[in-house]
């Protein structure tokens, strides 16, 4: 079959597919194709074909979707998300709907992106049904939730304890350590004890309540990032790791929950990039019209794409991480805690290239 006929057939198939599909064919996210199902989902028409996404749908840029697509184009790493809210503009009305979607990077032999295939499913009805079910089951699940969070807090207590033990062993063994270095170790011990105290405080709160109900305040992440990174570098013996930070915005959450989320994600980024020649971890944030999104990226071993959803389960790690110590409980904890803060976590990864974690914290409780 001639090439043009094959292309025509493919477009015809996509046009008639019930799966909402769109294709972006340039770095400015030009909408080269959108089938009827996608146009219906977007509440739009074919006049948007040939326009950049941010021009056709300014609200998608405000909500952070354009930035995610730009990252996919730049890195060639596909992005999947589930139960993600998005504002759909229908005339003068904006409806919040929920979607399972994928931004699939299409790359050439030089690993350069030449197009992004966007597929999407509207799961609003499913999301609402699940929310109703969760409310009905909440009272029955209080004891289970309490046990789950208590276990996660006990898990997180191990890191500051390990830092203190490492510092004490170093100070005991090296009697000739200079004053400046000794003070740095003392600072490490002090910060670890502050972290441990936070965990103990949260445990006391849990013992007095049947369920974990975080009281949200504005948490200044920038004040803590340096200590969290230094602790992880020491813990995973990765002194060559270079941490690069950008804009570090405050987030709405509770101190214990934000601590759990960031220390686990930063720890994973440093741990799983520690064996590469020039390990780099980047941490930055951006605002959307619904909240703050944090990005934590590394150039480590990555996660097999088909295993990304599995690693959220308790005691699950990537199949290529067996040589790294850990129980695999970290991401399980993060997903549960950020869900309690009404936020989201999404992971994009490619084996031997690295991992990007996107953490979203909404503006409102």
Automatic annotation (TrEMBL):
Residues 152-365 form the Histidine kinase domain. Coiled coil: none annotated. CDD domains: HATPase, HisKA. PROSITE patterns: HIS_KIN. It catalyses: ATP + protein L-histidine = ADP + protein N-phospho-L-histidine. The keyword Transferase applies. InterPro entries: BphY/WalK/GraS-like, HATPase_C_sf, HATPase_dom, His_kinase_dom, HisK_dim/P_dom, HisK_dim/P_sf, PAS-like_dom_sf, PAS_4. Keywords: ATP-binding, Kinase, Nucleotide-binding, Phosphoprotein, Transferase, Two-component regulatory system. It comes from the Bacteria. Its EC number is 2.7.13.3. It holds the Pfam family PAS_4. PANTHER family: SENSOR HISTIDINE KINASE GLRK, TWO-COMPONENT HISTIDINE KINASE. This is histidine kinase. It comes from Sphingobacterium hotanense.
